[in-house]
Structure formats: structure tokens, C-alpha cells
Write a structure and sequence with these properties.
alpha/beta; three-stranded antiparallel β-sheet; 2 domains; six-stranded mixed β-sheet; DUF58 domain-containing protein; 313 residues; 34% helix; DUF58
Length: 313
């Protein structure tokens, strides 16, 4: 549950609504460029330029010349070494496709520090999109947790980034407006399962979520990791880890709207809350590790972009 003030609100700093991800300095983004490229280095060969022969190709092998081959592909060194004309056989590279699986459930609209969790998630989606397109790749987006879940198929160029921005501008779901039925897969699990059918070729999957609620997302995430490089970005808020001593406080589950009143002046209560939060964080980390995903934790407090660069370096 996320803490919302019922009394003593003056002791809690709550950002006045959506703040956006904050500045995205070009230097920091440039630093992440090589890191993200290395993350997917085992997925596709070469520098992952556009498909087709020429600049976007890799040298696959040499083979003997046969009539009809392009004589411009003759390899002088191999021909001289073997005494038989050889040609360079080049194969087109596939452009790397990056999918961003973005959690837009109500819990992402929470934040008590510099910004909301959804603001940080938006920034991660934008940075990943820019880096994917920078190398001639394609970017795709799938949201989960709202009544209207969005799916943007893989695209390249400025139009792709504009589409991502339009979806991000829609924000997150309203508290309790789209409660999850525990008898069915969670929205995140459902979204990841759908990605399995939409991603036949190896690529990069970036999941951005707070990973709150059911952990039925691990099996489909592990299945994706069999084929793709997977980066799991967990977004947290400091008040999800420790309660302030501010007296009576309302704890509200943004996913269901369930509400309870607690007295945060109780040291025992605060200790129990912190212990439960710590256990929950450890369980999430364990599930992500078992799903063979690289796990990065970002906070609504501080410079999330710099932390992302440091965690991935």
C-alpha cells in the first residue's frame, strides 16, 4: 500500500502532480549509449545498422567464385592465397528492435520525493527510445495496468519517438478505476506474455515497473529472457520503504482503493512496515534474478538518470 496523509500532511512532501522526468542531459545520455549497445551485444552481430547490403552488413564468410557472382566482391587476398577466385559473401544485418514494457497502473502515480514514479518511468522510456533509434534500430512500446492498454509496433525514425511521446502524455490509470481480478493474470504478466508472441527475433526488452502486486510476471519474463536481453527497471519511492512519524495516516492501495488508518507515532508499527518493505524488495530482486533479467533500481528521489548510468556501467 502507498502512504497517503490523513492527518499530519504537513510533514509529507508530495509533488504537485506530474513533474515529468526532469532534464535529460545529452552527455549522460551519450554515456548510456555504449552501455545499452553492449547490453544487446550478444543479441545481434555487428554495429546494428539498417538492414541491407553495404554499410549495414557484416562479413559472414568467403567462398569460391561461381559464374554470376558480382566480380566487385572478389577478395584478392583469399584468391592469391588459394589460387582460386574467392568472393566475400555478405549478409544483411537485422536492425535491433527494442521493446519498452511500461507499467501505467495506478501505483505508478505515487511519489513523495522529487517526482512521481511515473515521471521516472517516462524518462526511462524516452532515453531508451532515443538510444534505440540512434543506432538505426526500431523501438516499440507496450503499456499495462490501464483500462486502455497501448501497443505501438516497432518503428524507426522521428515518427516512432513522436508516437512514444503521445502515449506517455496519456499518463497512468486512475486509482482503483481498473482493479485487477486475482482470478486472472496480472496486467504486467499478461503484457509480457503477449510480447512473447510479438517478438520472434532476438532483441532488447526493457521492463519499467514498480513490480507491485502479484508476481505472476516471472514466468513470462523468464521466457522472454530465453530469446532476448532483458533489463528490468524497478522504480521506488522512499515512503514505500519507511513510514514517517506523523501521527494518524491513511494507507491506500491505489490498485484497489482499499484504505486503512494507522498511527505512525507507533515505533513498533514503523519497524514492522520497514521490515515488510525490505522483505518485499528482496523478494522482487530474487524473482527478477530467477527470471535472468538485469535488475536496476531507481528512485523518485535524486538524479535517476545518473543512477541509471552508474548501475549499467
Amino acid at each position: 500500500m502507498s502512504p497517503r496523509a490523513a492527518a499530519g500532511a504537513e510533514f509529507l512532501h508530495v509533488p504537485p502532480g506530474r513533474q515529468g522526468p526532469g532534464p535529460l542531459p545529452g552527455g549522460l545520455v551519450d554515456t548510456l549509449d555504449l552501455t545499452v549497445a553492449q547490453k544487446a551485444a550478444g543479441v545481434l552481430p555487428g554495429d546494428r545498422r539498417a538492414p541491407g547490403l553495404g554499410q549495414g552488413t557484416e562479413l559472414a564468410q568467403l567462398r569460391p567464385y561461381v559464374p554470376g557472382d558480382d566480380v566487385r566482391q572478389l577478395d584478392p587476398a583469399a584468391t592469391a592465397r588459394t589460387g582460386i577466385p574467392h568472393v566475400r559473401q555478405q549478409v544483411p544485418e537485422r536492425a535491433l528492435t527494442t521493446w519498452v514494457a511500461l507499467d501505467v497502473s495506478p501505483s505508478m502515480a505515487f511519489g513523495t520525493a522529487d517526482r512521481l514514479k511515473s515521471d521516472v518511468a517516462e524518462g526511462v522510456a524516452l532515453v531508451v527510445s532515443r538510444l534505440a533509434l540512434r543506432r538505426g534500430g526500431r523501438i516499440a512500446l507496450a503499456t499495462s495496468g490501464a483500462a486502455a492498454e497501448r501497443l505501438l509496433p516497432p518503428r524507426s525514425g522521428r515518427g516512432a519517438l513522436a508516437g512514444i511521446r503521445r502515449v506517455l502524455a496519456e499518463g497512468v490509470a486512475v486509482d482503483g478505476a481498473h482493479a485487477h481480478d486475482p482470478a486472472h493474470p496480472s496486467p504486467l504478466a499478461r503484457s509480457l506474455s503477449r510480447l512473447r508472441t510479438l517478438t520472434p527475433n532476438p532483441g532488447l526488452i526493457v521492463v519499467v515497473s514498480d513490480f507491485r502486486g502479484p508476481r505472476d510476471w516471472r514466468p513470462p519474463l523468464a521466457a522472454l529472457a530465453h530469446r532476448h536481453a532483458v533489463l528490468a527497471v524497478e522504480v521506488r519511492d522512499p515512503r514505500e520503504e519507511t513510514l514517517p512519524s506523523v501521527g494518524p495516516l491513511a494507507l491506500i492501495d491505489p490498485e484497489t482503493g482499499a484504505r486503512i488508518e494507522v498511527d505512525t507515532s507507533s515505533r513498533r508499527l514503523r519497524d514492522r512496515f520497514a521490515a515488510a518493505a525490505s522483505a518485499d524488495r528482496a523478494a522482487i530482486a530474487d524473482e527478477l534474478r530467477r527470471a535472468r533479467s538485469q535488475h536496476v533500481v531507481l528512485s523518485t528521489e535524486g538524479d535517476w538518470l545518473r543512477v541509471l548510468g552508474r548501475r549499467l556501467s
